[in-house]
Amino acid sequence: MNHVLRQLPAIHELKQDQRFINLLEQKQVSLDKLTEWLQEAVSDIRQGILTQMIDLDNLKVVGMEEAIFSTVSERISHHCTYKLRRVINGTGTVLHTNLGRARLGEKAIQQATETAYSYSNLEYHLEQGKRGSRHELIEELVKETTGAEAAMVVNNNAAAVYLVLKALAKQKEVIVSRGELVEIGGSFRVSSIMEESGAKLKEVGTTNKTHFYDYEQAITEETAMIMKVHTSNFKIIGFTKDVSISELKPLGNEQEIILYEDLGSGAIYDLKRDGIGQEPTVSEALQNGADLVTFSGDKLLGGPQAGIIAGKKKWIDRLKKHQLARVLRVDKMTLAALEATLKEYVNEETVREKLPTLRAILLSKEEIKHKIENFLAPLSPVWVTELRDEVSQVGGGTMPEVELDTKILLLSNSKIKAQTMHEKLRIGVPAVVSRIIDEKIALDFRTIEESEFSDLHKRLQELEQEMR
Question: What does the pLDDT average to over 358-376?
Fold first, then answer.
């Protein structure tokens, strides 16, 4: 072993090697950083020899210096690979939380890129030549698309909920039905966020039944708000009863209590018209009597991550003046993408096609089958293929009871196991996230765009080459 260790070359000698010089020129890495990685590579190989984790026979075949520079190359490759990467979503879940939820439309991407590339009037009135407010940039569009009196944007819907409770109900009681004390992804609980905000939770009713009189009897001089939470990520069925915002409206008016509804998913386009789910729209919630509504930007809205607060002007004005409004504000690229997304809703004739989220949700099974057939046309015959009826999910904690009829493509090859193929597709570039069904790779083309076909073909060709 000592004999092998003595073969490790000195760092100054390795730096004179042509391979080091080539890496320095080709990879655009500084001399100091490349030297550091070279030292780490030598140290790793020395440790591998001492712990017998390196096969000495194999090391002899490869060569000591070649093994060192191979390790350095791996470090460079790891350094040059971005942590946040593009993924081809073959799961069929449209709003896949782990894969970034809503995909932006073309105009939103263009607007965000242009805004990032140059200076912008983020907080500057071009007409008046003086300082402006970023709140004004999208407020008119939110009002136009929802019917709200006023609106503002924060960095996500959890922040929107927190701001509403903190600014309008601190040290006051907020009445919530026990059937609506939900927990969503990341262990975000309504009860916990209320505790953090300083508002006092007052639970009414039971898990499955809450009546009007439960709210009525719970009101005291300390009550600031009645909060309705849309249970978008689960459904209680059977022996149930809840009270709608419209039923609570007279009670709120009579007692001068804020009626607040957290919609979460935030639909502006009414999917019920297409026979998909029973998701209420933001405009419906406001028309039914909600003083304030909060919802996400990157779910059914189909835009960037944001928390949108819409409702009565007197309450929105108070929220804008609260110190947390600055803490929770969004940046220029988010506002640019959100503005472009909201503009698409002005034209109901085209919004279904312009926004990838709506387009994917509304795809018919026949349209998906046609996409698969187009994909299969140039596919190598080494793959055994099968089309099968399945269901897709909306995802993102939205409409859990809704199943979207779809067609999936099953791929298999006797030379490679489904699990191996699944893993190789996931770790390659671009990454492909699939499912395994009946020991075959399953791809749902509801969430695969035709523009991604060439990259998916390329990834499958890479697997073919490995099987030869």
Answer: 97
88 three-class SS: strand
Query: What CATH number should be reported for the domain holding residue 209?
Result: 3.40.640.10
Whether residue 210 contacts residue 179, with contact meaning beta carbons closer than 8 Å, is answered with yes
Residues 292 and 423 in one domain: no
Looking at the predicted structure, is the pLDDT value of residue 36 above 90? Answer: yes
Task: Give every CB contact of residue 296 below 8 A, 6+ residues apart in sequence.
Answer: 156, 157, 264, 265, 266, 305, 306, 307, 308, 396
Going 394 to 395 to 399 to 405, the CA torsion angle's sign is positive
Q: How many residues in the chain?
A: 468
Say if residue 138 is in the same domain as residue 185.
yes
CA distance 281 to 46: 63
Beta pairing class for 384-395 and 93-95 = parallel
pLDDT (mean) for 15-29: 90
Out of 3-12, 150-159, 321-330, 341-350, least confident range: 3-12
| CA–CA gap between residue 347 and residue 191 (Å, rounded) | 39
Assess whether 153 and 234 both reside in one domain: yes
End-to-end CA distance of the chain: 37
Does residue 1 have a pLDDT over 70?
Answer: no
- Let me know how many helices (H) and strands (E) the chain has, helices first: 21, 18
CA distance 275 to 294: 24
**What pLDDT score was predicted for residue 396?**
84
Residue 155 lies in a domain: yes
Q: Both 136 and 249 in a single domain? A: yes
Domain assignment present for residue 245? The answer is yes
Indicate whether 332 and 362 sit together in one domain: no
Residues 278 and 169 occupy one common structural domain: yes
Last residue of a domain, one of 352, 383, 406: 352
Locate tokens 């034209």: which residue? 347
The reply to whether 322 and 364 lie within a common domain is no
Are 413 and 440 a contacting pair, CB within 8 Å? no
3-state secondary structure (DSSP) of residue 82 = coil
User: What is the distance, to the nearest Å, from the Cα of residue 14 to the centroid of all Cα atoms in its chain?
Assistant: 45
Task: Report, as an integer, the average pLDDT of 431-442.
Answer: 97
Range of the domain at 166: 106-352
Task: Tell whether 101 is covered by a domain.
Answer: no
Domain count, the chain: 3
Q: How many CB atoms lie within 10 A of CB 466?
A: 12
Compare 28 and 104 and report the one with higher pLDDT.
Answer: 104
CA atoms of 141 and 152, how far apart (whole Å)? 11
pTM score of the predicted model? 0.90
- Cα 73 to Cα 67: distance, rounded to the nearest angstrom: 10
